[in-house]
Amino acid sequence: MKLWRQCGFVCGGLLLAACALTAQVIEYETNGQKYQTMTRQGLTVILAQLPNHVAGFGLFQVSISNGSQVNWNVMPEQMSYVRPEGPLQALSANQVVDLLLSKASGGDVIKLVSSYELALYGIPNMRSTNGYEYRRQGAMSYGMSTKLKAAATASAIVLAPTHLTPGQSTDGAVFMPLSRETKNLSGGHVVFRAGTEIFDFTVDSAPEIGVKK
């Protein structure tokens, strides 16, 4: 009996070690919004697909927290949507600003902000050190011009290139291009690459669209 008990302790320890080494996606839902989260090497990524499409682009809300002892560089171009026809690359922060200035209407921007804030505030205890809330304070200093407001909104809401030191976090919207063949981001994988780490999230179905192209 003693031998079996010792074997049980050893096997249990090995199982815990294996679980610690294998990063798994955890899914949860808050107020109808589905979230997926994964942690690798102390870096935690939370992903939520937004229901609105803007100017022919699918949207994801991403929150990233650095719980490790090393620095991480994050930017939207590190994310792609993998499908059988080939991967779709996310737009850079500068491309998003240009996009909203040239194509998005005032209604698009308002609905985008509302959708993003609902997803962001649905994450329990998520307070980014240099994310949307921080950037929005700076955006309020812009003038009253419609174009300046659009640029300020885009700069505040898009996932900006960020150097995350230990304990820091950020968040932002990531824009994925749609096409005639890929009208909805559904049935593929969202892959985020940070350094040598790969975060893989499955997109089962697209949320209801609330913004017309």
Task: Kindly describe this structure.
This protein is 31% helix and 31% strand. It contains 5 helices and 11 strands; from the N terminus they run αβββββββααααββββ. The chain has a 5-stranded antiparallel sheet with strand order 1-2-3-4-9, covered by helices on one side. A 4-stranded antiparallel sheet has the order 7-6-10-11, with no helix packed on it. Strands 5-8 form a two-stranded antiparallel sheet. α2 (93-102) packs antiparallel against α5 (146-157), α3 (106-121) runs parallel beside α5 (146-157) and α4 (132-139) runs antiparallel to α5 (146-157). The chain starts with a helix and ends in a 10-residue tail after the last strand. The model is unreliable at 1-22 and 208-213 (pLDDT under 50).
Largest pleated sheet: 5 strands, antiparallel
Strand portion: 25-35%
Low-confidence spans: 1-22, 208-213
| N/C terminus separation | 68 Å
Could you report the average pLDDT, rounded to the nearest whole number?
77
Shape: globular
Q: Which class best fits the helix and strand makeup?
A: alpha+beta
Helix content: 25-40%
| Element order: H for helix, E for strand | HEEEEEEEHHHHEEEE
- Spatial strand order of the main sheet: 1-2-3-4-9
Rg value: 19 Å
- Secondary structure tally, helices: 5
Number of strands: 11
Q: Outline of this structure?
A:
The chain is α+β, with helices and mostly antiparallel strands.
Descriptors:
213 residues; alpha+beta; 5-stranded antiparallel beta sheet; 4-stranded antiparallel beta sheet; 5 helices; 11 strands; 31% strand; globular; disordered N terminus; disordered C terminus
